[in-house]
Amino acid sequence: MVGGAIGLVVVAVALIISNIPSETAAIRDVFPHKPAMVSPPQASTLADNDICKTLVEPQGYTCQHYQVTTEDGYTLGMQRIPAGRSGKKANKPPVLVQHGVLADAALYLVSSPEQCLPFILADNGYDVWLSNARGTACSRTHTSLSPNDEKFWDWSWVELGTYDLPAFIEGVHNQTGKKLHYVGHSLGTLMALSAFSTDFKQIDMIRSATLLSPIAYMNQIGSTLLKEITVFSLAEPTSMKNLVHLSQMIRTGTIRKYDYNTSENMKQYNQATPPAYDMSKIPKDFPLFMSYGKNDYLSDVKDVEVLLETIKDHDKDKLAVQYLENYAHMDFVMGNNTRQAVFEPLMAFIAQH
Predict the structure, then answer these.
(1) Distances (CA, A) of 255 to 82, 99, 131, 242, 259
(2) Annotated catalytic, 329?
(3) CA-CA distance, 347 to 210, in Å (whole number)?
(4) Over the stretch 250-306, which tens digit does the pLDDT of each residue have?
């Protein structure tokens, strides 16, 4: 199968950080150019309407650009595909499609239309919405901060689940007046899992959630992977804090909020250690579809099994789990037979909910 590169890079950087005793000066030595941000050597420039104009409309689909603003001031870009290639308007519920780490919505659109999830959904009658997390090319503005400010990059996946995800969901719901299906890949699954396990008011706006290459527990990632890393060109930047947070998860094997240090944790959380997320708190009657693969270095099989054990009391008719023997991390987005292996079972699941 194709497409393990981005997953390997994330693992590599997180492992490097997880083995650095100090997460301050030492990190500046590893990434001296800008400690607040990890920027790919050839970052995407597909801002604003460019995803529509460059990747969607040339394939014969209508594409509309929207913006939403988060509670903490980030302006985020979204792309909507409201009809299939035939021009027939969607007659099924909205589907919100969220990318993973070091990527943006463009990642879902680089294969042929017959193999791209957004186009497949649109051709099957769904109203497709693509979301772009803060820091990506079309989500790089703020009501008061500049991307050149370190504070602009002061976030991890916690903020993505706390602020970005609600803004996306409310944006779709406000525009359509309908409950939506959610599809997340990689970090997009952690955004959802962390949100769903808390007092997440927007969950009533969601019909189901599909989690491709789910990331929750990350204790099984091994340092031998560093030997397999070469140089890759990534799609989009992320914050250094986000990668440090992932490295903390690798070290501890837990899902907690960001660990500053004891004194700062007391200020932030009123306790010495960061609060933990309890995945068993996800509503048991909430429809979930999970798909994971044997060759996935970021969503390790044993880690996914820990997650499944944690939610073992989930209503059996509301949880569908798929295991693919030969799939790596990016195969769930752009594999050679992903349509047949993943997307068709995905659509069968959401059609039931």
Answers:
(1) 36, 20, 24, 13, 11
(2) yes
(3) 10
(4) 889 999 999 999 999 999 999 999 999 999 999 999 999 999 999 988 899 999 999
Active-site annotation holder among 164, 259, 296, 303: 296
CA terminus-to-terminus distance, the chain:
31
Domains contained in the chain, CATH given: 49-351 (3.40.50.1820)
Question: 18, 44, 156, 186: which is the annotated catalytic residue?
Answer: 186
pLDDT in tens, 98-139: 999 888 999 999 999 999 999 999 999 999 999 999 999 999
CA count, 13 A, side-chain hemisphere, 276: 11
Residues 6+ apart with CB under 8 A from 168: 68, 76, 78, 96, 98, 129, 131
Q: Is 39 a catalytic residue?
A: no
How far apart CA 251 and CA 158 sit, in angstroms, is 17
